[in-house]
Amino acid sequence: MARKDLLDITSLDRQEIDRLLDQAAPFKELFTRSVKKVPALKGKSVLMLFYEPSTRTHSSFEVAAKRLSADVTNFDVTQSSITKGESVRETIETLQAMRTDFIIVRHKSSGLPGVIAKLTKAAVVNAGDGAHAHPTQALLDAFTIKEQYPDPTGRKVLIVGDVLHSRVARSTSTILKKLEVEVAYLGPGSLVPKVGPENIRRFTNYDEAMAWQPDFVYLLRVQMERQDVQYFPSLREYHRLYGVTEARLAEIRDRGIYIMHPGPVNRGVELCDAVMDYERSLINDQVENGIAVRMSVLYHLKPESGDS
Amino acid sequence: MNLLITNARLATENSPEFTPTDALISGGVIQQTGPGLTAPAGTTVIDAARRILMPGMFDAHVHFREPGFETKETIATGSEAAINGGITGVVMMPNTNPALDNPAVIAAVLASAARHARIPVFTSGCVTKGRAGKELAAIDGMRALGVRMLTDDGDTTHDPAVLFRAMQYANELGMFFASHCEVPELAGPRAINEGVMSYRLGIKGSPACAEEIIIDRDIRLAHAAGAHIHIQHVSSRLGMETIRWWKSRGDVRVTAEVSPHHLLFNEEDIGDYDTHYKMNPPLRTRADNEGLVQGLIDGVFDLIATDHAPHTPFEKSQDFVAAPNGITGLETALVSLYHHFVATGIFGWDLMVKRYAAEPRRLMGIPVPEIAPGHTADLILFDPEGSTTFTPEFMRSKAQNTPFLNQTLKGSIDLVILGSNILKSIF
């Protein structure tokens, strides 16, 4: 089945997830060679439409597209007429006229990439929309987990932090459930929804969560910028209750638990400095795998604009 | 115009049973009713063929967008939409631009209605200037032009002291208050219930308590001020139970309305960000649907009102967060309620007539049309065997922001008469 867009994880079945992940492995191997480029998307155009600031995801997609030999254009939102009140629809019609093959979009509004996908023949990749979805993050997380456990069935992932505002928590928990990985949430009562998450265990304190014996602790970034009101009293309290402190890192090390984080990390909040040097921290692996997975996604999608 | 309607079945608010009847209308007035009437010379005869005869409906909550947002709707198109849905009177909300907060704007709206509308169009007035919740609007000036309902519409009067004083003042002028209930700090700008769907779609939700708190607050203020409070478009079961409790005390004048969409739909219908289901208060859960239907049957809700809220296709084709709140309702209300509730035996036509024709007019202090000799003809014929497909061609509203678009439902509105005018007829 040819897929035009990647908007979320929910619409992927297990087979397609496996295919996307399997395809990422040979791309990753490429990175160790002196020439890291393949001509898979030569002559294709990739347009980066980022309405929200992003350094990591933006560069990761850009590197991925370039390693596939695509031409990458940055549609600079801050310099465009979007700041003059142009609606998304007009922007997309403009891009359609440019016959772009791929649009990588990030926007603060949940659901907007789906609206764009309906308006264009280009393949649309959701690079994060509001608190809704971040499918390539989920794929790279799954890829990273499978590097440690090729068959992750029955493994346990504890996702810690601000689930309410997190598209990463939603997409990553969704892909993990599809891979039959057990998922639990831990975080402040004000930041973990009580209604909504299905088949996801909820812990209210760290010790309880550790007793569940997770294989991975996945720390979410505390996103102060997304909080319209205060959800917890201070970063200090957050760190004390939900952060990986040095004492907790010792326990994590003893149990051989892996640590993941979508980045960028807030030192002293989600984790203490020592975590950055922890031998089972997969944070840098996630970054590298992100490029491979995004290459796999671009390679997999079929724009309606191109020849078959 | 002399007209004889034969073979009709009369529905009233007092009995679930129909009365077989004919009705002879002359000069816009009903002359005779009863079975077996004969047509005088020169009379047009309409064979109702067992269609249901009842008073025209009355919608106490519509947004006609004039002045200011005429690309969405005008008084002309909105009132034609009402007629298409069997509705022969409406009350406009004041969230126009400028807001309906002074006699000059009210007079302009009423003049436009007199010119463009074939049915009576009433208007509410603002509690505060510009609906901003600070300074009181020109209350008595608006009253002098016939305004009875005061409301700040979608912006709940935030400061309880402002509303309390307005209640004490306007009550003595014979006016009442209508409340869109919402604590903005809790509800935020998002019209989605806090629950399963808000999590799934990644949009911060608005909890039902944001609405329920103001339902209770405003009734409590009315209780203390001795004023009449009307609670608009209740969306939650607990909100309904709050009203039920206050009504059971019997010491406060409280009325309440429920909208067809809150009876029929719930948050799950939003599916993949379908903006047709975005309105405020938001759709809640299936349990709330059931609670609201029960509230309507039990009489906790005095009336049905659509909150007809037209928007342009462009506005509603935006992403869910950016798209405006609201759903149209005038053309679909009667048919959809028949299809889902009357045809399925959940409630009867007596409830429909009481809650959608009689009580809204009582709220506004205007006479309830009767299908009896000596009364002005204000009636509709409804065909329960018929069907309606809500195509863009069918719609008279400028807007089509309804999930019923292109759907076919049971029942059709075949004749609408007001005075000597046949406003809609398939005959």
Main sheet strand line-up of chain A: 7-6-5-8-9
Give the strand content of chain A.
Answer: 5-15%
Q: Helicity of chain A, in percent? A: 25-40%
Query: What is the averaged pLDDT score of chain B?
Result: 97
| CATH superfamily (homologous) name of the largest domain in chain A | Aspartate/ornithine carbamoyltransferase
Number of domains of chain B: 2
Tell me about the largest β-sheet of chain B: 8 strands, mixed
User: So how many helices of chain B?
Assistant: 13
Low-confidence stretches of chain B are none
Largest interface: pair, residues per side: A-B, 25 and 22 residues
> Between the first and last Cα atoms of chain A, what is the distance in angstroms?
13 Å
Could you walk me through the main structural features you see in this protein, from its secondary elements to its overall organization?
- The complex is a heterodimer of chains A (308) and B (427).
- By secondary structure, chain A is an alpha/beta fold.
- Chain A has 2 domains: 14-132 and 288-300, Aspartate/ornithine carbamoyltransferase (Rossmann fold, 3-Layer(aba) Sandwich), CATH 3.40.50.1370; 135-282, Rossmann fold (3-Layer(aba) Sandwich), CATH 3.40.50.
- Helix content of chain A is 37%, strand content 14%.
- Chain A has 10 helices and 9 strands.
- Chain A has helices spanning 14-30, 56-67, 88-97, 112-119, 135-148, 167-178, 206-211, 235-242, 246-255, 283-300; strands spanning 45-50, 71-74, 102-107, 123-129, 156-160, 182-186, 201-203, 216-219, 258-260.
- In chain A, strand 3, helix 4 and strand 4 form a beta-alpha-beta unit.
- Chain A is globular, with a radius of gyration of 19 Å.
- Chain B has 427 residues and is an alpha/beta fold.
- Helices cover 30% and strands 23% of the residues of chain B.
- In chain B, the strands form 3 sheets. In chain B, strands 1, 2, 3, 4, 5, 14, 15 and 16 form an 8-stranded mixed β-sheet that branches. In chain B, strands 9-10-11-12-13 form a 5-stranded parallel β-sheet.
- The mean pLDDT of chain B is 97.
- The interface between A and B is medium-sized, with 25 and 22 residues.
